[in-house]
Amino acid sequence: MTADDVIAIARYGAKVIISAESLAAMQQSREHIEKLAVAETPVYGISTGFGALANRHIATEDRVQLQKSLIRSHAAGMGPVVEVEVVRALMTLRLKTMCSGKTGVRPILAQTYAQMLNANITPVVHEYGSLGCSGDLAPLAHCALALMGEGRAFGPDGIEAPVAELLAAAQIKPVELREKEGLALINGTDGMLGMLILALADLSVLADHADVIAAMSVEGLMGTDQVFRPELHEPLRPHPGQTKSAANMFAALSGSEIVASHRHGDDRVQDAYSLRCAPQVAGGLRDTINYVSTVADRELAAVIDNPVVLDSGEVTSNGNFHGAPIAYVLDFLAIPATDLGSISERRTDRALDKFRSHGLNPFLAEDAGVDSGLMIAQYTQAALVSENKRLAAPASVDSIPSSAMQEDHVSMGWHAARKLRQIVSNLRRILAIEYVTAARAIEMRAPLSPAAATGRAVAKLRAAGVAGVGPDRFLAPELALAEGVLASESSLID
Predict the structure, then answer these.
(1) 89 partner at 20 to 30 Å CA-CA among 262, 297, 362, 395?
(2) Domain count, the chain
(3) Are residue 184 and residue 285 in the same domain, yes or no?
(4) What CATH number is attached to the domain comprising 218?
(5) What are the φ and ψ backbone dihedral angles of 481, each rounded to 5 degrees?
(6) Annotated catalytic, 44?
(7) Are 146 and 153 in contact (CB under 8 A)?
(8) What does the alpha-carbon distance between residue 357 and residue 351 come to, in Å, rounded to a whole number?
(9) Three-state DSSP state, 138
(10) Phi-psi bin for 180: left (phi > 0), alpha (psi -120 to 50), beta?
(11) How many C-alpha atoms does 132 have within 13 Å on its Cβ side?
């Protein structure tokens, strides 16, 4: 399974098909579990309690109840409901691990999860409950509870209904869990990884958008395109991300009458850093995305469960459920994503300041004084930047012991993922405000024409319903429309 597969299922409702090879592998590993279940020697997760209660041997007649109790007790989340795409991503990734044949579950569990995904039945998962170690326990337990026909879930229409009714309507039978299966459903890093995969996809698109929007700001502020020439990047400072962003900006400004109009006779020696250094900042995000993608791919190839069934049939404990590798890169991504928003806000502020905008109306207002133009849009942008700076503080440096000190070091990777999702959403809004600002600045340079590429970006914004220069009007809906363009379009210039 690839990251693209996860996104297709989680975000776009692609159908899940389990291969015959996966079903056979699950059946084979299940046979090992069933042999151990009747053996005299206790085995963790099969014939014992869990966590700090692992030393208690559980009688055969109590083991079905043991699995039910595990899921019911661990489904202890609180707070706001997590987004549907996140829940579908974590279910998809848990299904992927079940299909590895290393968890010891019966094929019916994987088949039922696939049926739930295909029927668009989404368990209710809450914001709080995972410490990013022993897996995303509470979030995954809420999903497992729905598999049992219990708990809460949303139907394909997005409306919450009793789980039993939703399963019955989709002709899905609830599953009664047996030995080892409760643990196999909850001992994974799937929520963390799912949110990482979704964030990587979103940030890759936003990096492309940011290059075009930064080029628009350069144009609107009468900046130069010469600092983006290829000979100043890859040969001199061979960071691939920087080279890519510089090339994007240079191409976006090609043929601009606005840029050409002041190429000679301009008394400015250099543009401000927020213009001149845009490729270095956006490129840093690109290179971080590339590194983090390798970590995500490794985790996608992993089998996260405890205990795990080896090819030899041995069932053994391990620590692969610890979310540290994912938590670190979730925190890492938050830093350049936040800084990209920070430099974007600086370009917006420069365009609104009559002393630094090189001839533009104050706040890009039609009649400054009577009109306030985009003055308060920059306030909103600054508020979003400030929030991202707070959210960029790492979660993975924290740890709170749990389970009577058995689980005495945890990753907090779920929290790192949750705050990264907020940073990504805020970054999109920050860039949307710069997009609106830069488009208005470009149009104020008429009769000079923008580059063909940046002109297409302006046209796309106008086609979405965001008007240009004019008397003050209700601005929030237009900012929301601009945000929608950035969320729905893979490119601003195609």
Answers:
(1) 395
(2) 2
(3) no
(4) 1.20.200.10
(5) -65, -40
(6) yes
(7) yes
(8) 5
(9) helix
(10) left
(11) 27
CB neighbours (10 Å) of residue 69? 14
The b/e string for 257-292 (b: 16+ C-beta within 10 A; e otherwise) is ebbeeeeeeeeeeebeebbbbbbbbbbbbbebbeeb
Q: Which is it for strands 152-154 and 160-162: parallel, antiparallel or unpaired?
A: antiparallel
Q: Cβ–Cβ contacts within 10 Å for residue 232, how many?
A: 16
Among residues 132, 159, 188, the one where a domain terminates is 188
3-class DSSP state of 173: coil
pLDDT in tens, 114-166: 999 999 999 999 999 999 988 899 999 999 999 999 999 999 999 999 999 99
Distance separating alpha carbons of residues 266 and 286, to the nearest angstrom: 33
Per-residue pLDDT of 63-105, as tens digits, reads 888 889 999 999 999 999 999 999 999 999 999 999 999 999 9
Helix axes 413-443, 190-220, angle to 10 degrees: 20
The answer on 248 and 182 residing in a single domain is: no
- From 12, 44, 113, 291, active-site residue: 44
Report whether 154 contacts 167 (CB < 8 A): no
Distance CA 32, CA 186 (A): 20
Q: Which amino acid is at 248?
A: N
| CA nearest neighbour of 219 among 267, 278, 269 | 278
Instruction: Report the candidate in 8, 129, 142 with the shortest Cα–Cα distance to residue 72.
Output: 142
Same domain, 77 and 184: yes
What does pLDDT average to over the chain?
A: 95
HEC string of 383-440 equals HHHHHHHHHCCCCCCCCCCECCCCECCCCCHHHHHHHHHHHHHHHHHHHHHHHHHHHH
**Quick one: 65 exposed, middle or buried, by C-beta within 10 A (0-12, 13-18, 19+)?**
exposed
Spatial separation of the C-alpha atoms in residues 241 and 238, rounded to whole Å: 9
Identify the CATH number of the domain in which residue 124 sits: 1.10.275.10
pLDDT in tens, 441-491: 999 999 999 999 999 999 999 999 999 999 999 999 999 999 999 999 999
Alpha-carbon Rg of the chain, whole angstroms?
A: 26
Q: Where does the pLDDT of residue 50 fall: very low under 50, low under 70, confident under 90, or very high at 90 and above?
A: low
Query: Hey, what are 256's tokens?
Result: 């601009």
Asked if residue 493 is part of any domain, the answer here is: no
* Cα(487)–Cα(483) distance, integer angstroms: 6
> What is the Cα–Cα distance from 64 to 70, expressed in whole angstroms?
10
Q: Are 407 and 401 in contact (CB under 8 A)?
A: yes
DSSP for 251-276, please give it.
HHTTT-HHHHTTSSS---SS--HHHH
Show the DSSP H helices in 106-189 as ranges: 107-118, 137-147, 163-169, 181-186
